[in-house]
Amino acid sequence: MEDCLAKKMEITVSEAEKRTGRNAMNIQETYTAYLIETRAVESQSEGQCAPVESLWRRYSEFELLRNYLSVTYPHIVVPPLPEKRADFVWHKLSADNMDPDFVERRRIGLENFLLRVASHPVLCLDKIFYAFLMQEGGWKEMVNETGFQLKADSRLKALNATFRVKNPDKRFTELKHYSDELQSVISHLLRVRARVADRLYGVYKVHGNYGRVFSEWSAIEKEMGDGLQSAGHHMDVYAASIDDILEEEEHYADQLKEYLFYAEALRAVCRKHELMQYDLEMAAQDLTSKKQQCEELATGTVRTFSLKGMTSKLFGQETPEQREAKIKVLEEQIQEGEEQLKSKNLEGRDFVKSAWADIERFKEQKNHDLKEALISYAVMQISMCKKGIQVWTNAKECFSKM
Amino acid sequence: AASAPRPLPSSGPKSLREMPHPLATSSSEEMGPALTPSPDLLLPRSIADKDLSLPNGTPVDTSSPASSSSLLNRLQLDDDLDVETRDLFVTVDDPKKHVCTMETYITYRVTTKTTRAEFDLPEYSVRRRYQDFDWLRNKLEESQPTHLIPPLPEKFVVKGVVDRFSEEFVETRRKALDKFLKRITDHPVLSFNEHFNVFLTAKDLNAYKKQGMALLSKMGESVKYVTGGYKLRSRPLEFAAIGDYLDTFSLKLGTIDRIAQRIIKEQLEYLVELREYGPVYSTWGGLEVELSEPLEGVSACIGNCCTALEELSEDMTEDFLPVLREYILYAESMKNVLKKRDQVQAEYEAKLEAVALKREDRPKVPTDVEKCQDRVECFNADLKADMERWQNNKRQDFRQLLMGMADKNIQYYEKVCVT
C-alpha cells in the first residue's frame, strides 16, 4: 500500500455547482459540476504546502472513468459510484437530483469513490485515472482513444456464458451466490430502514402538538401555568430534534449503499471469470472436434454421424489430394488451437489468481468498513436516546414544579 | 334540605400511634395470582424496596410491593391534611369474575379500615360490582347535590371493541374505582354520607338498595331541583369564570387525549416496521462470517428496543389515557353542578321577585325565599370549597401524571441505551 496514490496526494471533492449547458443533442440542460481538488503531500512538515490543483467534473465523467476501469481491470472489484438517482428515500427526503441535500451526499460519495480508487494498489497507478484528477481538457478524448469500449464484453455474451459454462471455479460460483444474497439483503434493509425512519419522524413530530396545547392550557391555569408552558417548550425541542438525527442516519444508509453497489462489482468479476472459463471450454471443445475430424479423415472411418460424411458417401468420395489438403489445414488449425488453448488456460489461471487476491483484499476492506459503520450506527442510536432522556428529564422537572 | 357541612370530628380518631397499622394485618392483603396490583404509577420503584417506617416510627410491612406503594400513595394524597387526622382508609382490589346463569360480571373487594365512630367495626371487607359503585354515585349526587362528586370510569363499553374481561381493562377499571372511593374518603362531607357508609359496610347491598327506594318515596330524601322555568339574571363572576375555565379545560384535555392516542398509534406503526427491521440484520449475519456477530448483535438490540417500546405504549394506554378521560368526565359533572347552582340561584331570584311584587304574602314567602337563599349560599360555599380542593388535587394528579409520562419515556430511553 506504500505506493498508492492516496498516500502521496490529498484528494477532495470540495464543491458542487449548478451549471447549465448544451449537451450532445444540443439541448439546454442543467447539471451539477463537482470541484476536484488535489494537493501533493510533502514529506517535510515545514508548513510548506504544495499548491492546490483543481478542476471541475460532472457525474457523467465519473461514470466514464468507472466504465473504463471496469473494462480495463476486469479482475479487480472496482469501487462503485454513489447512486445516480435518489433511491430508498423516506418521505421527507426528496428524490430530486437537484435537491441540495442529495447533491451534498453525492459530493461525499464521489470523494469517497476517488479515495477508494486512489488507495487501490493496482488502480491508483492507472494513467487515465491520474489524468482524470489532473487534466481538465481533452480527458474524454484520451479515454476514448484507449478503445476500451471495444474490449467490453457484451451483456448477452456474458449471460450466455453464465448458463452454459460447465466447470467454473467453485469459489467464484459461491462468491456470485454470496453477492446476490448480499445485494438482496442490503436492499431489503435499506427499504425497511427508510420506513422505520418515516415512522420515527411521525412519532417525534406529533409530540410537537403537545407543545402547542400545553401552552394554550397554561394560559388558563394559575399554579400549573408556568410548569406547563416550559414543559411545552421541551416538547417542541423534542419534535425538532428528529431532523438532525435522521440526517445523520442518512450517512449510515449511504455506507450501506456503497456495499450494495459493491456487490454488483463483485458479480461483474465473477461473470468475467465465467466468460473466460466458457471461452476456454469452447476452445477446448473446438480443438477436440477438430482433432477428431483430422483423425477421421486420416483413417477414413466415420466415428460419428456427420452431414458431410453422409453427403460425401452419397455424392462420392473426395480425391486423396483433396483429403491431404484438408488434413493439412486442420493440422495447422489444431496447432493454432493448441497454442490458443494454452494461452487461454494461462490467462484463465492468471485471472483467477489475481482476481482472488483482490477479492481477499476486498473482503477485508468490507469487514472493516461495515464493522465501523455498525459501530457508528450504534453510537448514533445511543446519542439519540441520550437526547431523549435529556428532553424528558427536563420536561419532568417542569412538571414537578407545577 | 341540604345538610350543612359538618365539622371534622375533633375527638374520636386515635392518633396514628395507637391505631393498628392498616397494613400490619397480612390476612386481607393476599392478592389474586393472576392480577398483581401495579404499584401506583406515581412512584419510582426504588421506594418499594427500601425499609420503610411511618413518620412516627411504626415499621411498615413491606413484604408485598403493593402494600408499601399503596401506603405511600395514601400518605401522598393527604399532602394537605395532617397525617394524624386520617381515620378512614379504603382500598379497591382483587377483581374476581363471577359466572352466573343470567350474566357474567366482575366484583372487586372493597376493604375499609377506620377509627370513626360512625362505623361499628374498625375493619370491613365487602365485594362490590360496578353497578354498586354507580348506585353509590347516584345516591351521592342526589343527597349531596351541592357538592362535586368524583367521576366513575365509563359505564358502557362497546362489546366487541373492548374485552370487558381482559386483564388490562379490569385493572384500569379497578384503579379508577379505587381512586373514586379515595376521593370520596378525602372529602370532609361526602365521606360521612350515610350511603357511603352502607356501601362500605353492608354485606348485602341489594337489600339496602331496595329498602332505600321505598324510603325515598316516603321521606323525600333527595332534594329535587326543578330544571325548567327559571332564568338566571346574572351569574356571579367567579362561577362564570369557573364555567369558562371548565370549558377550556375539557377542550384542552380532549386535545391532549387525541394527541396521546395519535402518538401511541404512530409508535405502534413504528414498532411494526422495527419488528421487520431487526430480523433482516440476522439474515445478513447468516451470510457473513466475520460480521455475523456484530450483525446478530444489532438484530438483538433492535428486538430489545421493540420490547421497550411496547411497554411504553402499554403504560401510556393503561395509566395516562384513563386519567385524562377521568378528568374530562370530572369536568363534565362539574359543569352539571354549576348548572344546578345556576338553577338554584334562578329560583331564588324568581322567588325574590315574586315577593317583591306580592307584598301580602310576607309570612309565607320569606321562609320560602329564605330557604332558596340558604340553598344558594350553601351551594356556592360548597362549590367553592370543592373547587379549591379539586384544583389542588388536580394539580397534584396532573403533576404526577405528567411526571409519570416523562418517567416512562425516560425509562424507555434508558432501556434502549443499555441494549
Automatic annotation (TrEMBL), chain A:
Keyword Transport: yes
Pfam families xref list: PX (PF00787)
PANTHER family, per the entry: SORTING NEXIN-4 (PTHR46596:SF1)
The PX domain, residue ranges: 12-140
Family membership noted in the UniProt record: Belongs to the sorting nexin family.
Gene Ontology molecular function: phosphatidylinositol-3-phosphate binding
UniProt lineage: Eukaryota, Metazoa, Chordata, Craniata, Vertebrata
Any one annotated GO CC term: plasma membrane
Lineage top rank: taxon: Eukaryota
Keywords: Protein transport, Transport
SUPFAM superfamilies cross-referenced by the UniProt entry: PX domain
Protein name, UniProt field: SNX4 protein
GO biological process: positive regulation of autophagosome assembly; protein transport
Coiled-coil residues: none
TrEMBL record, chain B:
Stored SMART domains: PX
Classification via PROSITE patterns: PX
One of the GO BP terms on file: piecemeal microautophagy of the nucleus
Composition-biased stretches (Pro residues): 1-10
Originating organism: Phainopepla nitens
Disordered: annotated segments: 1-71
Name under which the protein is recorded: Sorting nexin-30
UniProt-listed Pfam families: PX
GO molecular function, one term: phosphatidylinositol binding
